[in-house]
Every structure is written in structure tokens, then in C-alpha cells.
Amino acid sequence: MDEMEEELKCPVCGSFFREPIILPCSHNICLACARNILVQTPDAASPQSSRASGSGLSDYDYLDLDKMSLYSEADSGYGSYGGFVSAPTTPCQKSPNGVRVFPPAVPQPPAQHHLIGHPGSLPPIPRNSCITCPQCHRSLNLDERGLRGFAKNRVLEGVVDRYQQSKAAALKCQLCEKSPKEATVMCEQCDVFYCDPCRLRCHPPRGPLAKHRLVPPAHGRVSRRTSPRKISTCTEHELENLSMYCVQCKMPVCYQCLEEGKHGTHEVKALGAMWKLHKGQLSQALNILSDRATEAKEFLVQLRNMVQHIQPADGPGRPLLVTSGWGTLKENGVEFEACLVAQCDALIDALNRRKAQLLTRVNKEHEHKLKVRRHFGSSPGDF
């Protein structure tokens, strides 16, 4: 169990994975940790692409290099795979579980101007940014999507949840200064675990705090991960709500993306209007699928009728009659059997072809709906 627990911890923060993302090198890292170790690269020394063919190494070669000693990046300012990492005088940090981690970029001061109703926005991710895997030290470029371009590892997140529930480890208070005590409640509004002394001191049941809901720690840990976010926020500006939709990039954006990012010159529309438009398109696609299903049923009825048309004439000793559009055949029993088998095989082939066509259409419609849902960040029940 202890070995398994180490596999479920982030190599940067040393804690259990929270919102893990999958890097192109197949390693995992927390989304928040990925933002912390982002490095801005100058144009003159931009890192090589993670999929560049000039290095002569495949993804499996990178995985094999995990076990080899690497040259010090602090001496040259370049990572083990040729990517710019940091200044030569900046040493590498070390995570709690012993894995080397490159230092994050120097934090930029927050923007001095904000839109009305959107205060305290975080600075956007620089365009020329890269991230270095803390395990294989492979330098990876970020495209225009930023961290949104990395897929989330839902399976690993579920495994971490189940492991923590099965282990039933005591949750610690988040406000104790020295040795954290065991948490007794969790505030759903504050999203903080409290022990009894800290709850009485920092979260008294009076005033505005009296309306907050306190739940047991185990229930709060589950609801923290399973409860959906009421308002989707921008991945580049965490305090900004998504309110617009970029038609060219086919993705939701916030107001600060329009002011400072590349979407300023793109065509944008209101997010609510685009949601209604895509919802109508999905409903239309479902109606088309329903019509095609009706056509398929009618086609099956026609096939059954064709089979029923193949029948022998009444009475023994009379010639066998086949009326399926190809004329009347007067043959002996062996020839009739061969004809019947051939026609049945033709019907089966037609059914298989029709089945393949319908499955292909259903898969295409399903993939289209998944892409639309990813763009809007909504759940399947919203459509």
C-alpha cells in the first residue's frame, strides 16, 4: 500500500494528485503545479518541440533516460533535451519526494488595470512558455491553448479518490499553526477543514458565517471533488469568468483574453447565444439520427418481405416457384436450395453493410457532440 501511495503523489508537491494532467511524455502532474513550474522562453532560445524529430529519440527513449544521470542544467541554462530552462545561476529545486524540479518563472506583478466587475485577475500565461517534466526532464512547448492543451487524467483522479476513501486517513485542520489537529468539520462555503478550537476562533456561528454549512470531513472531501463548479472560469485568468466565445478558435474566453490575448482580433460572440446555437444543432442532429433509425427499421421490414417472397408452390410434386423480382425458376430441389442460400447470404451482406454505415454515422455524431461539450465545459445533462 505504501508503494502504491507514492505512485499516487505528484512529483512536484509530493501530495496526492489533484486535477492531474497528462504531459506528452506520459507523466502526470497536478494542474496547479504545472502552472507553478511554467518557464517563459525568449524568442531567440525557444525550446525545441516535444515532438521534434531532429533529436533522434522516441518517446520510449525518453522514458529510458529517466533512470540515467543527467547533466546539470544549472551550468548551461539548458535542459537535458536542449530546451531553455532557466538562468545559469538558478539552481534546481527538489520536491518533497526527492524528484528534481526546475524553478518556476519569476512571477509577474498583476495587471494594474482591470475591467469593472473583474478585479484581482491573474496575469495570463506568456505565449513563449514551456514546461519541463519533473520526472524525465523533457522540455515541452505550450501551444496557443496553454495548459488547456494537456488532457486531464480522470482515471488517475478517480483512483486517488478511491484510495483516500479506503485508507480513511484523518484529515488535518488547515488553520493550526504548529502541529495540525484532526479536523472535525469542513465548511462548504469556505472550502476549509477546521478542528474544534480553530472553528470556534476563526469560524464562529454568528453573523454572516452562521449561514455557512458545516459537514463532516469525509463528506466534505468527497463533495470537494464531485461537486460541479457553478461558474466556469478561464484557465489563463483564474479569477475571470468565461463570458464570450471565440468563433475562430472555437473555445470560450474571458474579457481579459480579449484585451491582452490573441483573441482580441478574432470574431467573438456571447457565450449564452453560442450555447443555444450549439444546443439547437445537437437537437437537430438527434432528430436526424432518429429519422435514420426509422429508415433502418423500414429497410429491415423490406428485407423480411423479400425473404417471405421466396417460397415453394402449393402441393407436392409441383415445380418450386421463386418470386423475388428475378423471374420464375423451375428447378429441382438441389438448385432451389443453392438459390435460397445465395439469396440469404446476399441479405446478410446487405444487413452488415447497412449496420456498418449506421455505426459509422453514430460514432461521428457522438464525437461531434463530445467536441462541442469540451468547448463549453458543460455536463452531458445540459444538452
Describe this structure in words.
With 383 residues, the chain is of the alpha+beta class. The chain folds into 4 domains: 1-166, Herpes Virus-1 (2-Layer Sandwich); 170-227, 30s Ribosomal Protein S14, Chain N, CATH 4.10.830; 233-266, CD2-Gal4 (Irregular); 272-382. The chain has 10 helices and 13 strands. The strands form 5 sheets. Strands 3-6-7 form a 3-stranded antiparallel sheet, with no helix packed on it. A hairpin with a 6-residue loop joins strand 6 (129-132) and strand 7. Helix 9 runs antiparallel to helix 10. Mean pLDDT is 70; it is low at 44-123 and 312-331.
> What is the fold named in CATH at topology level of the largest domain?
Herpes Virus-1
How far apart the termini lie comes to 41 Å
Secondary-structure arrangement, i.e. CATH architecture of the largest domain: 2-Layer Sandwich
Q: Overall 3D geometry?
A: elongated
Quaternary form? single chain
Q: Beta fraction of the residues?
A: 5-15%
Kindly state the mean pLDDT as a whole number? 70
Helix content: 25-40%
CATH H-level name of the largest domain... which superfamily?
A: Zinc/RING finger domain, C3HC4 (zinc finger)
Major sheet attributes: 3 strands, antiparallel
Please, how many helices? 10
Classify the secondary structure makeup into a structural class: alpha+beta
User: Unreliable segments (pLDDT under 50, ≥5 consecutive)?
Assistant: 44-123, 312-331
Total beta strand runs? 13
- CATH top level of the largest domain is Alpha Beta
Give the H and E element order: HEEHEHHEEEEHEEHEHEEHEHH
Strand order across the largest sheet: 3-6-7
Organism: Hucho hucho (huchen)
Domain B box-type: 168-217, 229-271
InterPro entries: E3_ligase_FN3/SPRY, Znf-RING_euk, Znf_B-box, Znf_RING, Znf_RING/FYVE/PHD, Znf_RING_CS
GO molecular function: zinc ion binding
